[in-house]
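Residues and backbone
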Amino acid sequence: MNPKVDTYLIDGCGRCKLYKTPQCKVHNWTEELKLLRSIVIESGLNETYKWSQPCYTYNNNNVLIVTAFKDYACISFF
């Protein structure tokens, strides 16, 4: 597990003025993001942090990101 992802879940993504505030969209979906993270880690992918969000790779190739939007959290595949 990557410590930068832990920081992301605590502080937010840092891509807007809501960084480190309760209004950050990451904070609306913290439990869901943690669950998605655990599912992806169990799959054996490597956890990194790219583009201010958790990114998961296989053989150094990007496979997916786990991210929060205003109305939902999701896994997005490359």
